[in-house]
C-alpha cells in the first residue's frame, strides 16, 4: 500500500498549530501516512512546544518564510525569491 505524504504549513502560533494537530491525530487513526509540519523559523520553538504536548512523533521543520506584503499595488519583496526558497524547501520531502 502506498503511503500518503501530507504536509501542513502554518505560522507557528497556537491558532495555526492546534487545528493541524487535531487533523493529524485523525489521519493517524485512518491509515499509514507520513505527516510533516512546516513553519517559519521565527515560530519554531512555539510550534514544536505545541506539537510536543499533543503529538511528539510528528516532525516540525523550519523554513524561511515571510509575509508577501503589498502596499498600494507595489510589492516590497520579490515573489520569485519567495517561490525559489519555498521550492528548495519542498525538495527535501
From TrEMBL:
Positions of the Glycosyltransferase family 28 N-terminal domain: 6-89
Keywords, sorted A to Z: Glycosyltransferase, Transferase
GO terms of biological process kind: carbohydrate derivative biosynthetic process; carbohydrate metabolic process
E.C. number: 2.4.-.-
Domain of life assignment: Bacteria
MF terms (GO), sorted A to Z: hexosyltransferase activity
Pfam families: Glyco_transf_28 (PF03033)
Enzyme class: transferase
Gene3D superfamilies according to UniProt: Glycogen Phosphorylase B (3.40.50.2000)
Protein name listed in UniProt: Glycosyltransferase
Amino acid at each position: 500500500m502506498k503511503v500518503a505524504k501530507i504536509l501542513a504549513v502554518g505560522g507557528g502560533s497556537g491558532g495555526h498549530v492546534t487545528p493541524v494537530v487535531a487533523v493529524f491525530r485523525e489521519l493517524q487513526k485512518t491509515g499509514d501516512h507520513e505527516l510533516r509540519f512546516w513553519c517559519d523559523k521565527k515560530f519554531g520553538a512555539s510550534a514544536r512546544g505545541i506539537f510536543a504536548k499533543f503529538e511528539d512523533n510528528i516532525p516540525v521543520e523550519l523554513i524561511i518564510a515571510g509575509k508577501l506584503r503589498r502596499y498600494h499595488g507595489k510589492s516590497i519583496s520579490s515573489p520569485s525569491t519567495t517561490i525559489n526558497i519555498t521550492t528548495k524547501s519542498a525538495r527535501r520531502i
